[in-house]
Amino acid sequence: MVLLIEPEAVRTPRLTLLPLEVGHAEEMAVVLGDPELHVFIGGEPLGVDRLRARYERLVAGSPDPGVLWGNWVVRLDAERCLTGTVQATVTGEGDTATAELAWVVGTAWQGHGIATEAARGLAAWLAARGVRHLLAHVHPDHRASAAIAAAVGLTPTEHRQDGEIRWEWTAR
Question: How many domains does the chain have?
Fold first, then answer.
């Protein structure tokens, strides 16, 4: 059984995290279109059609009833534009509720604290809904992503998955 969480808009001082919709694919294909974004995460930029198909799968939800996929696009409110995504894969319930976080911000908006603000906002939203454990996997050479994980309150562990460092936080 998974904690029942329905993604909704999450507001931070400068951002609104909007639940992912298939219609976001056109704008997000531009936001995520820089090959440099894929240096650490792998893959390649997806065109609109492939990104739309991916979003259709994500919006449909996990085929595993014990896993909840939460996906949001990050809107910079002052500019009314999408700048990236945040994700939470939630498993368990009660004291075992765990969310694995991921974030990506388009190259044009990096270096302005958007990923940190979005990840913190998502982490706080999840914690307010009973998620007691957060984790993220960060490439060991990706200093910016490690700084975001630390800003969210996660700490690095000795665990590795696919060469990435596992970062964790547990509610006290």
Answer: 1
